[in-house]
Amino acid sequence: MKHIVVLGGGFAGFWSAAGAARKLDELGASPDVRITLVDKNDLHSIRVRNYEADLDSYIIPFSQLLAPIGVEHLQGTVQDIDTRHNTVSVATTSGEQTLHYDRLVYALGSQVLRPSVTGLQKHAFDIDTYHGAKQLTEHLESLPGSSHGPEKYTAVVIGAGLTGIELACELPSRLQAIRNRAGGTEPVRVILADANTHIGSDMGSQAQTVINEALDALQVETLTDARITSVDANGLTLADGERIAASTVVWCAGMHANPLGTLLPVTKDRLGRIPVDEFMRVEGLAQVFGAGDAAWSMMDEQHASVMSCQHGRPMGRYAGHNVVADLLGEPMLPLRIDWYVTVLDLGPWGAVYTEGWDRRVVSTKSDAKQTKRIINGSRIYPPKSGIREEILAAAAPGVQTRPKVQTECQMDEADQ
Fold it and tell me: Which of 253, 268, 287 is the last residue of a domain?
């Protein structure tokens, strides 16, 4: 029996496993090939929603997704990858296991980088994972009973990329609701800090104008050219000596591919990602494929993939299809995506929707928010039904059309 091993159960990893199962089902070869997905968690989380308050509404147990399509799930942490002997070592609760693979899909994703700032590891939260976001939520809910003074409902978000902006826009209303339920009177203050000279520096000037408008409306303070030298339980200190008192510090600055990529003998890019071709094959490793944040591939003639579910999900579907095709001598399919959009949630103010790599603004406020809700609420989800046929159909190698700009009127009509 041949063995396909998929490392990682995020967007790219899950869809790689599902895509492989779909291709096997199509070929009628499932009894001859087994698929194992390795992930340290027992659930699939919609990571890009970790800035929201209701975390448990968007997690799906792997058993609900993998068992119906015949994919095994090994819960454990990858320790080693040996491409010479085609083995993977996994630490599990029952001890270390060694898996032999005939084909491997490397989809271990990315993680937020925490620099060696004094106290950062101990005192700062992050929303990089479901569990990290859960810890932040529990901390926020505990604030009314804490011993903090006037800074009790002050939060500093460090890193004004997409994740930091979305979290900063959500926090004022979240903190106000927590304070009001407790009958508190302390001021609510949210500060968004970044080392760059502009908030949302990668979003382009049009979108930056919209983002700044939203931040002003939500009364989120901004701090640019910020250098953090230390973090403690009561706030943080900047390089110029300024002290900011805060009960909550959240680190959202900088992403890097999973460091286990160093185990693969290929040249990585500046983000630690492994190179894959249009078929998702790792360059130089004939039996290894890659997908998602841990890998990069050209999406068109000029642009490489970015760390996002927008690219991770189709990369996974094509990796899954092609890993089976390669194993069984079938034609592989190349992945090309000729469009790029960004829909950034701006909390109660709305959202901003941009198109193209130059991020031209095409929709803002409530209209963009409706589009974001469709993306977050259904578009990026695997089928929750547990029905084999629906999960396999969703795993077909293809690229969704760009999301449509939705108006509130259209949303109302859809609900009727």
Answer: 253
